[in-house]
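Section 3.1: Structural characterization of target chains.
Under the original work plan, the team committed to producing a structural model for every single-chain target entering the pipeline before any wet-lab resources were allocated. The record below documents one such target. The sequence was received from the expression subgroup and is listed exactly as submitted; it comprises 402 residues.
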Amino acid sequence: MSATTPRPDDLAEAAALPARRPWLRPADGAAAVYERLVRLVRAALRRSLPLLAWFVLALALGTVAAREARTSALQARLLAPLHARLGFALGAGPSPSFRAPRHGPYDVRLGYVRIPAWTARLARDGFRVTEQTRLSPTLARLTALGLSPPYHEKTRTGLVVRDRAGAPVFAVVEPAQGYAAFSAVPPLVRDTLLFVENRELLDPEPRRNPAIEWDRFARAALFQLGGSNGDGRGPGGSTLATQMEKYRHSPGGRTHSPLEKLRQIGSASLRAYRDGEDTRAVRRTILRDYLNSLPLAGAAPRGEVLGLAAGLETWYAADFARTNELLAARVDPRDAADLAEQANAYRQVLSLLLATRRPTEYLRERPSALDAFELVRAAVVEGEIVGGADLAGRGGDQRLTG
């Protein structure tokens, strides 16, 4: 065998590995090249088409979700017409659809929880129900699910006894003072509350749902999923509307579970669209009602302290009308005395707004937390509330008197 003769091993390897054909050969014509390119493109599309479809679907859903988070258009379209089926009417005799609330500080305080017990007691004494409210089928189903009926709730309650001529003989109303209208709230108080609790409440979008701020809700959900700092405290996702649902209708005025949080959001959403798709007037009412009803612990001999006016009187011995006058006034920065008085009024209001997160702890058990400037400064970082940071710094120490 010569040196140029291939060895048997080489021949076997060559036979086992046929030569690779290039995808384009120089001898191919233009038609063949085009046909080969078309086949390659079609094969690539068949492989990537499912991924492309999922990408387009995700993009479309993301666009719709972003628009809905900004405008609440779909929620308004669905919930506003629903109120035509959420009616109630007075009918003869006991109502089979009547459901008394079972818990909630508001319902307990106004006696709604005890209606069945009182009715049964009166029936044993010979009385009978002559008329009672009938709920529509849709409203009855929603209340059976735990949602609060979306009626116009009152923030002031009491007892007035009149004589035969109609003149009041005895009258007590709580809270005794409050804001009669949204326009009566000083801009500094309004802006402070919005900054601390619900920055998007007065967004100009007419159909916006005040029950949820998606960015704050997402941050709170991520915090809960990631674990807290050990004491269960962290950023909250509640808006003013859901907070009112909580301290009025949740057991003990607290959120005990994610399901209870969803109930609060659902109830607040139903209330938001009870008068139509445009929620701007409802949102202004929410801000006013929150200031008039926020829970601020309890103190003897008053008992439960409800509303900013009662809080100022109870915890700081401050006059509500004078406080609002100070916070609505324009004070000359060179007038140190007037500026200090205005600053004191502002810090009192701000401390009470912050205390609503844990009113009993901050106002009774650990009031020194409200004396610390760090707590106040946390709400007015870098002057984001116009004039607030400067006033908070000039206010001096505030001591609770309750």
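Residues 152 and 271 are 8 Å apart (CA to CA).
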